[in-house]
Amino acid sequence: LHARYVLNLLHETRKHLKQLPNISHVSTCYSEEVTVCGDLHGQLDDLFLIFYKNGLPSPSKSYVFNGDFVDRGKQSLEILVILFTFLLIYPKEVHLNRGNHEDHMVNLRYGFCAGLSAMSRVHGKKILKMFQNVF
């Protein structure tokens, strides 16, 4: 995606997240499943495998992602773009919890910042600042 689309997605995600309470309550009935995922750490193949086995988020398929979306793996940006897009499309079915890897100091140490800078030399700093704001 072009940097302006990523920035627009981040802006809309931030606007949405600011409206949510600090604690999310997710309830289900016996006929509904909730898939709980954690620690993707930039491994896009893991996210695709989860969606393959459990289905994509939808009004009938809820997901809770328990943080640590980025760092270590090479596709952190792609994971965040996918998760933030699903969050905006299905705000009642997709829930994102912040992990310790959604922190600037951790991102500096484990590679998310460097990965963004290498990916987008022109807009990398602006995108990184907006990610920090969203986190």
Automatic annotation (TrEMBL):
EC number: 3.1.3.16
Gene3D superfamilies tied to this protein: 3.60.21.10
Assigned keywords, A-Z: Hydrolase, Manganese, Metal-binding
Domain Serine/threonine specific protein phosphatases, chain residue ranges per copy: 97-102
GO biological process per UniProt: negative regulation of MAPK cascade
Cofactor: Mn(2+)
Coiled-coil annotated spans: none
GO molecular function: Hsp90 protein binding; metal ion binding; protein serine/threonine phosphatase activity
Catalytic activity: O-phospho-L-threonyl-[protein] + H2O = L-threonyl-[protein] + phosphate
Keyword Hydrolase in annotation: yes
Enzyme class: hydrolase
Pfam family, one: Metallophos
UniProt record similarity statement: Belongs to the PPP phosphatase family.
Protein name in the entry: Serine/threonine-protein phosphatase
Origin species: Sylvia atricapilla (blackcap)
Lineage: Eukaryota, Metazoa, Chordata, Craniata, Vertebrata
Gene expressing this chain: Ppef2
